[in-house]
């Protein structure tokens, strides 16, 4: 069987290769970077409960759990007072926590698992410089360390990020939403009293919102808004980030500054996730503004949605067109739901009016007493309400059974921790 081609060897592309391998489809992953994300650049750090269910389905959950640190709640504070606590221990999932893990570690483990299947080849330092297609194959022009070469594949998927070259080459436009401000993340090795490691915290200070996430042994992420008139590069230097951290967290003992990055608060949604034999996944399809791990999680869940449909299409299933249309419909709905939630967060990060901020604090304190509402909010953040359909092996042989991710029907492939969630079965044969 000719391999499918995946452009991009980050978490989304590697996850997609694993899902396809699960269904017996070989893949070739082309990654421009010669090495994984550097170990001192945390990047995407959060595996939400729904993503942990995917790792269980791939039989990787225990390995990831040994490497990561658990977070059991997220809190909002103002004026040294907690306004709202969102605990994960009440969400309807086998995993009532999030797993914090630097992107470097996720990539290393996903790539290792992919290679162990014997069905995935990863070519690092290979950059896609052109593409085309006809009715039967996708064609790829590649520049590798030893020179240029051409490939063909039954299908190809662009998982090459928000600035996707694949999307540009396909001529697919993207609609962007901008929230009018910049934000920054800075990683430190540090010790501090008064900040529980198992809880993340956002302080809603209208002068400058900021927050803390513990994501690896001894390592913390410090997030903060870059205010109007401030230079984004200057605000992410070691000196500026450390000075700001010490002003917000008196008594902190900083051992090492690791990395910092600034970004515009914005989100993108591609006009299409597919053009013929080419598809888009992850940020190439729906660029998420950085918010609590949503970008990577929506991307890897999209790989789960796409994987079985693409496997059936590679194998020549008669309903291939319908199935691939179903991927876009289901994934677009899921990504837009998360982007709308992100939009509310980003507007709060941009808020600088003290009077409006005071009203917000009162509202959050009131909301904290409505436990069913808080649980629903937490489940949405944890992505356990995301709809995912999972076929079993019989589906790939043309049978009509399938298993949804809440286990309402039998047939989930054998393995540790079959997923539990909500059903979206319209596309399953």
Overview in brief:
The chain is an alpha+beta fold and 429 residues long. Helix content is 32%, strand content 29%. Helix 1 runs parallel beside helix 4, helix 1 runs parallel beside helix 7 and helix 7 packs antiparallel against helix 8.
- CATH fold-level name of the domain at 4-70 and 103-175 and 268-350 and 370-391: FAD/NAD(P)-binding domain
Rg estimate, integer Å: 22 Å
Bulk shape = globular
User: Would you tell me the structural class of the helices and strands?
Assistant: alpha+beta
Spans of at least 5 consecutive residues with low confidence? 393-429
Strand residue percentage:
25-35%
CATH architecture of the domain at 4-70 and 103-175 and 268-350 and 370-391: 3-Layer(bba) Sandwich
Record field, number of beta strands: 21
Q: Sketch the major β-sheet.
A: 7 strands, mixed
The CATH class designation of the domain at 4-70 and 103-175 and 268-350 and 370-391 is Alpha Beta
Description:
This protein has 429 residues and is α+β, with helices and mostly antiparallel strands. It is 32% helix and 29% strand. It has ten helices and 21 strands. Strands 6-5-14-15-16-13-17 form a seven-stranded mixed sheet, sandwiched between helices. A six-stranded mixed sheet has the order 8-2-1-12-19-18. A hairpin with a 4-residue loop joins strand 9 and strand 10. Helix 1 runs parallel beside helix 4 and helix 7 runs antiparallel to helix 8. It is globular. The relative contact order is 0.17.
């Amino acid at each position: 069987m000719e391999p499918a081609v995946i452009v991009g060897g980050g978490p989304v592309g590697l996850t997609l290769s694993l899902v396809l391998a699960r269904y017996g489809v070989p893949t070739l992953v082309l990654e421009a970077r010669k090495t994984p994300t550097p170990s001192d650049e945390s990047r995407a750090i959060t595996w939400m409960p729904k993503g942990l269910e995917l790792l269980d389905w791939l039989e990787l959950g225990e390995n990831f759990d040994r490497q990561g640190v658990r977070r059991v709640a997220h809190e909002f504070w103002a004026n040294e007072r907690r306004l709202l606590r969102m605990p994960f221990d009440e969400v309807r999932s086998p995993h009532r926590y999030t797993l914090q893990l630097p992107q470097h570690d996720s990539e290393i483990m996903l790539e290792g698992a992919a290679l162990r299947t014997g069905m995935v080849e990863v070519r690092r330092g290979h950059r896609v410089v052109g593409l085309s297609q006809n009715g039967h194959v996708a064609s790829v022009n590649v520049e590798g360390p030893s020179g240029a070469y051409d490939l063909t594949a039954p299908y190809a998927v662009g998982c090459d990020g928000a600035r996707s070259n694949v999307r540009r080459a396909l001529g697919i436009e993207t609609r962007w939403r901008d929230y009018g401000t910049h934000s920054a993340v800075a990683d430190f090795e540090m010790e501090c009293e008064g900040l529980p490691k198992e809880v993340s915290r956002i302080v809603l200070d209208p002068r400058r919102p900021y927050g803390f996430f513990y994501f690896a042994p001894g390592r913390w992420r410090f997030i903060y808004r870059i205010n109007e008139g401030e230079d984004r590069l200057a605000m992410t230097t070691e000196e500026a980030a450390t000075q700001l951290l010490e002003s917000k967290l008196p008594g902190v003992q900083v051992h090492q500054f690791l990395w910092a990055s600034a970004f515009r608060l914005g989100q993108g949604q591609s006009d299409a996730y597919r053009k013929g034999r080419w598809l888009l996944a992850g940020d190439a399809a729906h660029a998420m503004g950085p918010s609590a791990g949503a970008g990577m999680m929506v991307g890897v869940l999209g790989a789960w949605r796409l994987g079985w449909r693409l496997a059936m299409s590679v194998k020549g299933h008669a309903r291939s067109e319908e199935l691939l249309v179903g991927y876009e419909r289901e994934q677009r709905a899921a990504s837009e739901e998360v982007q709308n939630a992100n939009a509310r967060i980003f507007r709060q990060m941009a808020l600088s009016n003290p009077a409006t901020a005071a009203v917000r604090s009162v509202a959050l304190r009131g909301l904290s007493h409505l436990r069913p509402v808080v649980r629903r909010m937490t489940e949405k953040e944890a992505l356990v309400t995301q709809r995912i359909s999972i076929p079993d092996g019989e589906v790939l042989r043309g049978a009509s059974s399938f298993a949804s991710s809440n286990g309402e029907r039998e047939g989930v492939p054998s393995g540790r921790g079959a997923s539990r969630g909500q059903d979206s079965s319209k596309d399953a044969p």
